[in-house]
Amino acid sequence: MTGLIRTVETTGSTNADMLALASAGAGEGSWLRAERQTGGKGRQGRPWESPAGNLYASTLIRLRPADPPAATLALVAAVALEEAVRVFLPTGATIKWPNDLLIAGAKLSGILLERTGDAIVIGIGVNLAHHPDLPDRPTTSLAAQGAPVDPATFLDVLVESFARWLLRWRQEGLDPLRLRWLDRAHAPGTALTARLPDGEAIDGLFDGLTGDGALILRLASGERRVIHAGDVFLI
């Protein structure tokens, strides 16, 4: 079942609003989209530029006892988002662990998961009409790729895709999701740098995912290092 989409002109953060709704007892499946955000944020609290014309949306998942690990909802969101992008840009995008989408190495989107109690709020930002200039990475937009689309139309497609993959996550477990993620991700052997929350930087070659969706890097020594959290960059 797909969710109800509510759209507002401006808000501080769709994730913050959805977290408040979750704490107030809101049920699963609703979506909130803003035309603009004044306090949008990405991973590790970094600000997310939010001009009109791009997608800023959040949804709410209520965890159930038999669900796979909550962290693997990042894979659900990434696979569903890539599938939605492919509707408008047939060449699609590349998933970078855990859930960024890249086109020719340039960042197209970001996904942020936040939790309160049994609720997971998933925020999704996609550069549809505009893309920011960032000091540490290239960026792009669907418009820059010759595939302009308005946010409401894009979200309609994303809601359907997300609902399908959420259902498969619950009914079939992680194997189909993991296989699709790997099919849409950078190739095995891709050189990556992982910057861990404690500041450590690890260089290695992409060597797949663990069964629960963690990143595997093969180091120069031949050791395989499992990464559960951190920022990952293409080298």
TrEMBL record:
<dbReference type="InterPro" id="IPR004143">
    <property type="entry name" value="BPL_LPL_catalytic"/>
</dbReference>
<protein>
    <recommendedName>
        <fullName>biotin--[biotin carboxyl-carrier protein] ligase</fullName>
        <ecNumber>6.3.4.15</ecNumber>
    </recommendedName>
</protein>
<dbReference type="InterPro" id="IPR004408">
    <property type="entry name" value="Biotin_CoA_COase_ligase"/>
</dbReference>
<dbReference type="InterPro" id="IPR003142">
    <property type="entry name" value="BPL_C"/>
</dbReference>
<keyword id="KW-0547">Nucleotide-binding</keyword>
<dbReference type="GO" id="GO:0005524">
    <property type="term" value="F:ATP binding"/>
</dbReference>
<dbReference type="InterPro" id="IPR008988">
    <property type="entry name" value="Transcriptional_repressor_C"/>
</dbReference>
<keyword id="KW-0092">Biotin</keyword>
<dbReference type="GO" id="GO:0005737">
    <property type="term" value="C:cytoplasm"/>
</dbReference>
<dbReference type="InterPro" id="IPR045864">
    <property type="entry name" value="aa-tRNA-synth_II/BPL/LPL"/>
</dbReference>
<feature type="domain" description="BPL/LPL catalytic">
    <location>
        <begin position="1"/>
        <end position="170"/>
    </location>
</feature>
<dbReference type="GO" id="GO:0004077">
    <property type="term" value="F:biotin--[biotin carboxyl-carrier protein] ligase activity"/>
</dbReference>
<keyword id="KW-0067">ATP-binding</keyword>
<dbReference type="Pfam" id="PF02237">
    <property type="entry name" value="BPL_C"/>
</dbReference>
<keyword id="KW-0436">Ligase</keyword>
<dbReference type="Pfam" id="PF03099">
    <property type="entry name" value="BPL_LplA_LipB"/>
</dbReference>
